[in-house]
Design a protein that fits this description.
CATH superfamily: Farnesyl Diphosphate Synthase
CATH topology: Farnesyl Diphosphate Synthase
Radius of gyration: 18 Å
Order of helices and strands: HHHHEEHHHHHHHHHHH
Strand order of the largest sheet: 1-2
Largest sheet: 2 strands, antiparallel
Number of helices: 15
């Protein structure tokens, strides 16, 4: 997933661009407090598929937005994603020791530093979206982006989804409830990645904005269902995290509720829904289509 799609090599270019942008926007590790800054960099720069930055750039390109205008949003959404992983891995939450093939942040450092690193990454995301610019998004556009991202990661988005996920076990939930959890815990931030770029070009009531939003919602749910499937079918070395963790934590997943074959079919249907929403955009949406294909067929 870190490599460019052979169908759309620009995805690899955008991922490289995201890596460089993340590197320059993180505090240097030698600046006080050194340990905190080292932990922030460890959490963000230790690999990853950069799905959310790629979605930002693909949407921005589709809408004709200069990539320089998208850099801060691409980094902001990835900082939020990284902070969520750091906190999710803590003993009080999912209690995981491995992430992206390396010790989780609280294992590489300590729990207190990991909590603070997540807190600081969240703050940095909104600092990026609010900094004064002489050439780039207007203040009004930045305010829209701040609203978009804050909604996505709050109690009605990612944090709320995690809270609901922690509150129930596999035997206490039905498919409808699980869909709600997935759409908030994972899907909300994927939707935000698309919206953050669309906020720079389209009003919220524009048909194109709504279509991109529906596309992202379908992709977000398909992405998490694929995660559920891989937790059963892939191995720890391929995943970069402990295989079978959902089962070990008695978490509800789509394969558990409907069976593996039905879960795979559901993900494929959502993938097609996302592609259908991109039809009005023609060839300009090819990078988004290629990214959708990657997300459905990924092995980690």
């Amino acid at each position: 997933m870190n490599a460019a799609s052979p169908v759309c090599p620009v995805l690899g270019q955008w991922r490289s661009r995201a890596e460089a942008a993340l590197e320059t926007r993180l505090p240097p590790a030698h600046v006080v407090p050194e340990k905190l800054h080292a932990a922030m960099r460890y959490a963000v720069l230790g690999g990853g598929k950069r799905v959310r930055p790629a979605l930002c750039y693909a949407t921005g390109s589709l809408l004709g937005i200069p990539l320089d205008w998208v850099d801060d949003a691409a980094c902001a959404v990835e900082f939020i994603h990284a902070y969520s992983l750091v906190h999710d891995d803590l003993p009080a939450m999912d209690d995981d020791d491995l992430r992206r093939g390396r010790p989780t942040t609280h294992r590489a450092f300590d729990e207190a530093t990991a909590i603070l690193a997540g807190d600081a990454l969240q703050c940095l995301a909104f600092e990026l979206l609010s900094r004064p610019l002489t050439d780039g998004p207007t203040a009004a556009q930045q305010l829209r982006q701040i609203r978009t991202l804050s909604r996505a990661c709050g109690s009605l988005g990612m944090a709320g989804g995690q809270a609901m996920d922690l509150a129930v076990s596999a035997g206490q939930i039905d498919e409808r409830q699980l869909e709600t959890i997935h759409r908030q815990k994972t899907g909300a931030l994927i939707c935000a990645a698309v919206r953050l770029a669309a906020d720079l070009a389209l009003p919220e009531d524009a048909p194109a904005y709504a279509g991109l939003d529906r596309c992202a919602a379908a992709l977000g749910l398909a992405f998490q269902i694929r995660d559920d499937i891989l937790d059963l079918t892939a191995d720890t070395a391929t995943l970069g995290k402990r295989q079978g963790a959902d089962l070990a934590h008695d978490k509800a997943t789509y394969p558990q509720l409907m069976g593996l074959a039905a879960a795979q079919q559901c993900a494929a249907q959502l993938h097609q829904q996302a592609l259908d929403e991109l039809a009005p955009f023609g060839a300009a949406a090819d990078p988004l289509r290629a990214l959708a294909d990657e997300l459905l067929n990924r092995h980690c």
